[in-house]
Amino acid sequence: MSTMRKLLFLVLDGAADDPSNPPTPYMAANKPGLDALAKSSIMGMHYPIGKGIAPESDAAVMSILGYDPDKYYTGRGPLEALGAGYKIRDNYEVAFRANFATIDSSRNIIDRRVGRNLTSEEAAELARAVDGMELGGGEGYARVIPTIGHRAVVIIGSQNKLSGFVSNNDPGYVRQGKISVAVPNPGTKLPLIEALDSSEEARRTARLANEFMEKAIQVLANHEVNKKRAGEGKLPGNVILMRDAGHEVPHVKPIREVFGLSFGAVTEMPVERGIAIALGMDSAPVSKYIGSKDEILMERLDATMQLLKRVDVAYVHLKGPDEPGHDGDFKRKVAEIEAIDKYYIQRLSLNDIAILVTSDHATPWKLKSHSGDPVPFMLSAGTASDGFSSFNEVNASRGSLGIVEHGWLLLPLVLKRLSP
């Protein structure tokens, strides 16, 4: 056990916003808990991956946990699969993060998330109808694993080698190397998946994935779940959008060996659970997604305090503010920050525990997408303060810790500050 103070590493998903468009949700929110921490904190800004990159959460989370995504990231799909309990066969299976979504008869995408009201039970029934599908005349197969709500994992497998270097058929994200970046105002036409290099493995993967998409559209069109949803005036989950393919799990040095400290994570979503598994972190899963903010956040708080009893660094990722950012809903984004403050931050009993608060990326409500903006962070360790009375983007940009150019440099900086 290290003599370093224990650290709560708290990430408010997508809470950061664009300070050139004030007030930001952080500025507008009534957040006495965060602001009390601000008074005893030093602050700064960081680019979760790098300047101008609008990352997805998974690559950003690996980055802020100290792993350069350019070196270690192998795509979101394998991490989602790992978090859903499925370890792919490297090079013979390709995993995609997937959404059930809605298209019209002309294959225009009406909603990339089925109106955000597809239940996990409905998704499980839809997944069962397309799981185990034979592809390529027996050359390949598809597995479909539902996770939470409209979210799923699609595995394309084959007896022949495959490659994750294929494009997305989800126009909301575009591949840039191994990572995907958000596309503001994406197109609505359902695209085909294409090989991103000239290899036979990539071409084979694209062919099998497109065959799966076509067959899934046919099966889902007349599924009882979708007929019932239509009768209730809801959108059907009649297509599966796939993105962020990968053909291997990350092969990395465990985080304990990187920093010489024990790490754990309160894992809310499958991708976070997958990252915890891949990095060798103790995982404290939570299961409440529906109910009052009080109940949901209390479960996460209890898991945090239990985790801090057995690890040096507890990583906690709270999802709330990201979704209203994507929906362009300023008031609800403010309300999500206020709920986290009221039901989580204000109830924390930290005693001699340091706390680092930040975001994995900005999701500006006017943009309705992740952005490449730097995000604020503050470190409250009882040793120094920048003298600010509120936590927000403008104050953090004036903080003594300056701008951290890459997210993977953040944790080393913080842990150095905490070293005795």
CATH C-level class of the largest domain is Alpha Beta
Number of distinct helices: 15
Shape: globular
**Low-pLDDT segments, ≥5 res:** none
Strand order of the largest sheet: 12-11-13-1-14-15-2-16
Mean pLDDT, rounded to whole units?
Answer: 95
Helix-and-strand structural type: alpha/beta
**For the terminal residues, how far apart are their CA atoms?**
13 Å
Strand coverage percent? 15-25%
What is the annotated CATH architecture of the largest domain?
Answer: 3-Layer(aba) Sandwich
Number of strands: 16
CATH topology of the largest domain: Alkaline Phosphatase, subunit A
Number of domains: 2
Binned, the helix content reads 25-40%
- CA-based gyration radius: 21 Å
CATH superfamily of the largest domain: Alkaline Phosphatase, subunit A
The major pleated sheet works out as: 8 strands, mixed
